[in-house]
Fold these 3 entries.
Entry 1:
Amino acid sequence: MAESTQQESQGRNPHGLSILSPEERADALIARHIEPHPGKPGIAEYRLRVEENGYPVWSIIGSLSPDGENMDQVARDYQISREAIEAVRAYYERNREAIDARLAANRAY
């Protein structure tokens, strides 16, 4: 078996990096960057880890344009990594209804 084919069969690409499905990548990003808020129950209250300033997911989503073209600007504004924003978007995709309701409640307040 050629070396690259053997690596790929072991879940790695020729550069030694893990090959992840989009779902596995989203899982990894969420696990690395998102945590429950200790004082606010509910999936809509999850936030970035404290090391990433602990911003609520809903507030970052509310700052992003629908197409995500302003990701770099939002990362600068919040002083977080682009990867953290990708984690926020992955979490949002899985919990869109709850987070949209949280955003609507915030706008109504």
Entry 2:
Amino acid sequence: MAYKRADRVNALLQRELGMIISEELRDPRIAFATVTAVEITSDLRSARVHVSVLGDEDQVKSTLVALNEARPYLRHEIGARTELRYVPNLTFVSDQTAERAARISTLLRQAKKQSGATTRAGEGAPVSERSERAARSDTTSPERVSRPSREIDQEREDPS
């Protein structure tokens, strides 16, 4: 599949918007915002900007409001910094991928604690013990390491 122009523009907009938001916008309502993805339409006229915000729901809402109010400035800056013929209309949406991943991780940890160490059928040791044993028996154990080349070279020099 060919690398489409829309993909290149997505990457360009993500990089430029990330720089502008983090370094140039001085709005106190914007709290640790990160541009995680940009989706531009095939005609390059409008773009959906996914923004991840560190904080609670109120901070996310105030950050999105501030970014929507700064939209004309952001479009102007993108136009000045890039060579795009048309600067796309920007739509900011909250990206909650990190929060979902953290939620799934905590649910998995809770499920693991509740079920305890499970064993595989036919084997007596729990899965966690087997993985620890495998980690300890790495390939650098003394019985698996061949003699150093220095010792072999010395034997070749002194055939006695």
Entry 3:
Amino acid sequence: MSQIDVWHYSGRRNPATGVLISRDRPTIVFLTVCTLRRSATLARQICHDALVEAWTEANAWLVGAYVIMPDHMHLFCAPKNEEIAIERWIAFWKRQFRRKVGPAAPRFQSRGFHHRLRRDENYHQKWEYVRANPCRAGLVKNAEEWEYQGVLNHLPWYGDAHPSGSSARQSLAPPA
């Protein structure tokens, strides 16, 4: 039975809220957030800069690698403050983003989709998927050419699950 079938039979329209935080392994979440009605308005420098600023200010969760597409974004994140639920964190940085861009800011769908990674292999598979998104969409020939991507914090699979990192954009490399 597919995940969609499980949601259908359980009566859910959206994935469960919250993220299970484990003490025995890292908590790294793969998050996708789409624009309202999938409007293709995100892939602009003003939006990129405002998102980076908003994520830096919304420091209850740390953003690792991310890719901003015209109508959605993918990112990896990890809790820095376990008391702040991921949904509350998302709502906060969306508000910060709107304040920074102004009235013309793209609107987002009310919910994002998040999935806690279970294994290191999932992390690398998701990263390759995210990295190749601009190529699959025909926006660039090589993933490195896409300008609306970056890494704000290193989110290691093993070791410190709550890394401190620089808020400056770093060169992209697959998650370690």
